[in-house]
Design goal:
Layout (H helix, E strand, L loop, with lengths): L1 H8 L1 E8 L6 E8 L6 E10 L2 H7 L16 E8 L11 E4 L2 E3 L5 H4 L10 E2 L18 E5 L4 E2 L6 H4 L5 H11 L8 E5 L3 H12 L3 E6 L5 H6 L5 E4 L3 H6 L4 E6 L8 H6 E9 L12 H6 L2 E4 L5 H14 L5 E4 L4 H9 L6 E5 H4 L11
Length: about 375
């Protein structure tokens, strides 16, 4: 009886999904679970497009399950809460980032770093507790355990806040953890894309001197005049890279394509930290001698826990930080993916789900 009742109470949902490794997205109807006692159900207003969506759509990491509804930079408005939900109510502005579940019992979960739980559950394309596959935010509604929902501060515009739920926390967390948040420090940011431009904003708000390191000289004017960076290095310019050696306390490397680490390590002062947050498909070559001779560190970081994600949003509201976005309709998503592959976006695509998804209903395919 319980199973029958649960099926009856399931909610019809509409999204866009990829059916295979072509990664081509098209309308898709499916079911969301009924609102459980600890669940928050919300209408999706906007969803950011992350570079990792591309990898997942084409199964480049070997973990994708189809049909795949991507989207883990999701913001919306609460429409229903379960009987035991304590933190949210009808009408609240909320968000969901990269995960919708974890074991909630390991040391990492106990220490508020659920993102490092061995059994954390991705927002899209992962197996949920009940054995179903998670569907992400390229859809009209989400049903998520309240522990994995964050509150969006009133001061923040919903559309431009969506990318903070992945890009934002991915750079905020290492700035804090690796101690690169002290006023007067000098921090480099490699790559001025979706992650990089937000890293610049957070670092500047922390009182840090920021240098952007990029392969694109044409981004110099924009980064200095619009984003307020203190200096700009063209990574292919040997003379300027040489002149900047031993000047940085740390570097946040956001690049997800293969690239040499040696020049970046050279920019670090003794005891400097190179933190990788991009995820290249192929292993990078790591030269050891420069690390030994300067007591330098190469580390990594992957998003952030729920407590820190809320802290990041509150910090963003205090300092008026949001992403620079290009708002697109749902049916533009495949073109957006092609442009993202060519880095043709300034700096993050966000899908206007609430205003444009329903118009694709007549194109939808039954699940």
């Amino acid at each position: 009886m319980g199973e029958i009742s649960e099926q009856v109470n399931q909610k019809n949902a509409l999204g866009w999904a990829a059916r295979d490794t072509s990664g081509l997205l098209s309308p898709f109807t499916f079911s969301r679970r009924a609102t459980g006692e600890k669940d928050v159900t919300f209408k999706v207003m906007y969803c950011g497009i992350c570079h990792s969506d591309l990898h997942m759509l084409k199964n480049e990491w070997g973990v994708s399950t189809y049909p795949l509804v991507p989207g883990h930079e999701v913001v919306g408005v609460v429409t229903e809460v379960g009987s035991k939900v304590e933190k949210f109510k009808f009408g609240d502005k909320v968000g969901v980032g990269c995960m919708v579940g974890s074991c909630c019992s390991c040391d990492n979960c106990a220490n508020n770093i659920e993102n490092y739980c061995r059994n954390y559950i991705l927002t899209d394309g992962a197996k949920y507790y009940d054995g179903t596959i998670t569907y992400g935010g390229y859809s009209d509604a989400m049903v998520v355990d309240e522990h994995f929902v964050v509150r969006i501060p009133e001061k923040l515009a919903l559309d431009a806040t969506a990318p903070l739920l992945c890009a934002g926390i991915t750079v905020y967390s290492p700035l804090r953890f690796y101690g690169l948040d002290k006023p007067g420090m000098h921090v480099g940011v490699v790559g001025l894309g979706g992650l990089g431009h937000v890293a610049v904003k957070f670092a500047k708000a922390m009182g840090v001197k920021v240098t952007v390191i990029s392969t694109s000289p044409n981004k110099k004017k924009e980064s200095i005049e619009h984003l307020g960076v203190d200096s700009f290095l063209v990574s292919r310019g040997q003379d300027e890279m040489q002149a900047a050696m031993d000047t940085m306390d740390g570097i946040i490397d956001t690049v997800s394509a293969p690239h040499p680490l040696l020049p970046l390590i050279g920019l670090l002062k003794s005891n400097g930290k190179l933190v990788l947050v991009g995820a290249p498909e192929k292993p990078l070559e790591l030269p050891v001698f420069p690390l030994l001779l300067g007591r330098k560190m190469v580390g990594g970081s992957n998003t952030g826990g729920m407590k820190e994600t809320q802290e990041m949003l509150d910090f963003a509201a205090k300092h008026k930080i949001t992403a620079e976005i290009e708002l697109i309709p749902m049916d533009y998503v495949n073109t957006a993916m092609e442009r993202l592959l060519k880095a043709d976006v300034r700096y993050r695509f966000v899908i206007d789900i609430a205003n444009t998804l329903k118009s694709t209903l007549n194109l939808s395919h039954a699940s």
